[in-house]
Amino acid sequence: MAVVTAVETRPRRNVELVLLVVSLGIAIGAYVLVGIAAEGQVQANWMWVGGGLAVLVLGVHAVLRVVAPYADPVILPITTAINGLGLVVIHRLDLAEETSLATRQLLWTAIGVGAAVAVLWLVRDHRILARYTWTAALLGFALLLLPLLPFIGRNIRGARIWIGLGPLSFQPGEIAKILLALFFAGYLVTARDSLALVGRRFLGLQLPRARDLGPILVAWVLSLGVLVFERDLGTSLLFFGLFVAVLYVATERTSWIVIGMGLFVAGAVLAWRIFSHVQRRVDIWLHPFEPGTFENAFQVVQGLYGMASGGLLGTGLGEGRPDIIPFAESDFIFTAIGEELGLTGIFALLLLYLILVERGLRTAIGARDGFGKLLAAGLSFTIALQCFVVAGGVTRVIPLTGLVMPFLAYGGSSLLSNWIVVAILLRISDAARRPAPAEVTG
Amino acid sequence: MSELTLTLLRLGYLALLWILVLSVVGVLRSDLFGTRVTRRPAPGTPGRGIPAPAPQRGRDTEDRKAPRTLVVTEGSLKGTSLALGQAAILIGRAPECTLVLEDDYSSNRHARLFLDAGTWLVEDLGSTNGTYLGRSKVESPTPVDIGTPVRVGRTVLELRR
Questions:
Q1: Report field, pTM of the whole predicted structure over 0.90
Q2: How confident is the model at residue A158 (pLDDT cuts 50, 70, 90)?
Q3: How far apart are CA A102 and CA A110, in angstroms?
Q4: How far apart are the CA of A404 and the nearest CA of chain B, in angstroms?
Q5: In this complex, how many residue pairs, one in chain A and one in chain B, have their CB atoms less than 8 Å apart?
Q6: Of A28, B42, B95, B127, which is the most exposed, with the fewest CB atoms less than 10 Å away?
Q7: pLDDT tens digits for A225-248?
Q8: DSSP secondary structure letter of residue A252
Q9: Which of A23, A368, A440 sits opposite B20 (nearest CB)?
């Protein structure tokens, strides 16, 4: 016999503050090292740049103390460290290529942090979000289809996932990701009983009824639609993966994973047969060094060379040549870090992502309501899937697809949406870790 | 700056990255939250049991007989205990309940335990299968004695000191 007792949870905001100081040390240390490597001395403005980042994240920390005192203490420091390191690596590539992307990224970091604070401040209870299940669905699908509109949609480098107004461009799919996670969580928390309990057993799998297959087929067709019309492999993969993951968490039925994987394989083979851009990606993946594909595979190959020259300990920040890789600041920032910080640094980075995802899933386990569980699980899964797809893509585990490494890679839309994701996770974790509901009505 | 300093800085930075990772892991180790499972001592072994919750000062004398915990004795949540405070306890399947049951025979908002002038009362909230105190069905708010089983669906609860 054993007794289960509730452990008294502590807010742990002071621990968060200490970890934040270490995280800021990582960002500022990287900036100083890049300055030493580039100009032989510490850049004069390091206090301003570091101070700016510190003000932003300490602002979030202060807001957390007021509105979500029991929120998970490690989510914010990890996010800060990854975001800060990403900023410095983009700055480092700026120095080599004479661009000024880091300033824009810093601006988007500020916007993202502002959005996170707004979410934490306005959404005091995540269960309120469940009311907007169908609004989120409508808005999410609308945002997803927005780039297809004739005037504002932009086709950049073969993918039609941007909208542009004058000089500004934005990927609405990034925000759609959050809205669809909201929708999937809200919808599946009500529909899970019929999806989980009804059906026949076959070979140890509980097969659903034919009519219950509807939602997963709709999600599949929609993500194929994104692939066909917007030519974006990554987004389509992300949405379908998110849906299958939330479906599995909601129903606990392995059969949904099997069905989802089957549909995914069917879709992947179909896409490979029909579309030349998918065929090219697969060729690059399988035969990067062969004469016929070498021109297309330049980016991947150069990334591999970069990581190889970095070795175990890396060349040191600012000492390598990651700027040879085209678009090193977005898709290939992972290999840039692999080159300059080596396997040791990359493993630390991957562990930080792993812990971030783990905290999200732990929040899902601790959440007292079904909606919060599914939302936290879905959002953490999107972070995990993006990491896997990007890291797997540049290291040739899977074909390269256009997703961004959360918080690290250059891209304003992604940064904004990921800060909102973190705000929602912090909000749910606050509810999950609070000792007991303060009062019960009824 | 000499080559040696640069190398030391480079390795120092990698060390800093790992310091963050390890300190985060350290925080997680000491931050396991939720429930703690303690083994109950075999009957007869003296002492070393579950430490009783520290008695609250001031209210000690009058509350000697007041129940301190609500314990689930049957059903899927068997073994769960809840510390009693001043707030009422809502029992049912709905996520907003204080005690959320995974019990197909209970209603969403099944029953409520609340404190009235120092005694805990149980009230049925119009549940489908009813709430039973001992053997009698609860029709109106009824005082609950320590140790009397309260049946909600397939779950049985008990007040303990």
A1: no
A2: low
A3: 12
A4: 22
A5: 144
A6: B42
A7: 876 777 777 888 888 899 889 988
A8: -
A9: A23
- Mean pLDDT is lowest, of A105-114, A336-345, B52-61, for B52-61
How far are the Cα atoms of B89, B99, B141 from residue B144, in angstroms, in the given order? 13, 17, 9
Q: What's the token pair of residue A48? A: 């301003």
Cα angle for residues B86, B88, B91 (degrees, 5° grid): 145
- A9, A12, A13, A359 from B33: Cα distances, Å: 6, 12, 15, 12
Please tell me the distance in Å from A233's CA to the nearest CA on chain B: 32
Q: How far apart are CA A306 and CA A328, in angstroms?
A: 11
Of the listed ranges A168-182, B95-109, B110-124, B141-155, the least confidently predicted one is: B95-109
Q: Which residue of A has its CA nearest to B28?
A: A74
The distance of B125 to chain A (nearest Cα, Å) reads 9
Residue A50 makes CB contacts below 8 A (sequence gap 6+) with A24, A27, A28, A31
Cβ–Cβ under 8 Å, residues A261 and A381: no
**DSSP annotation string for chain B:** --HHHHHHHHHHHHHHHHHHHHHHHHHHHHT--SEEEEEPPPTT--S-SPPPPPPPSSSTTTTTTS--EEEEEESTTTTBEEE--SS-EEEESSTTSSEE---TTS-SS-EEEEEETTEEEEEE-S-SS-EEETTEE--S-EE--TT--EEETTEEEEEE-
Which token pair is A219? Answer: 């999600």
- Longest alpha-carbon distance in chain A: 73
Is there a contact between A345 and B14 if contact means CB atoms under 8 Å apart? yes
| Residue A161 in this model has a pLDDT that exceeds 80 | no
Question: What pLDDT sits at residue B105?
Answer: 86
Mutation pick from A1, A3, A349 vs chain B, by most beta carbons of B within 10 Å, is A3
Which residues in chain A have their CB less than 8 angstroms from residue B20's CB?
19, 22-23, 26, 77, 81, 348, 352
Residue type, A327: F
CB spacing of A440 vs B90 below 8 angstroms? yes
Tell me the chain A residues in contact with residue B90 when contact means C-beta distances shorter than 8 Å: 440, 442
Closest residue of A to B69, CA-based?
A5
ipTM of the complex: 0.88
- Three-class secondary structure of residue A65 per DSSP: helix
- Compute the distance between CA of residue A81 and CA of residue B17 in angstroms, rounded to an integer: 9
Task: Determine if residue B34 is left, alpha or beta; phi over 0 gives left, psi from -120 to 50 gives alpha, anything else beta.
Answer: left
pLDDT at A146 over 50: yes
Strands B119-124, B136-137: pairing kind: unpaired
Question: pLDDT tens for residues A184-212?
Answer: 898 888 887 777 766 666 666 666 666 67
Q: Say whether A22 and B19 touch across the interface (CB within 8 A).
A: yes
- Residue of A50 and A151 predicted with greater confidence: A50
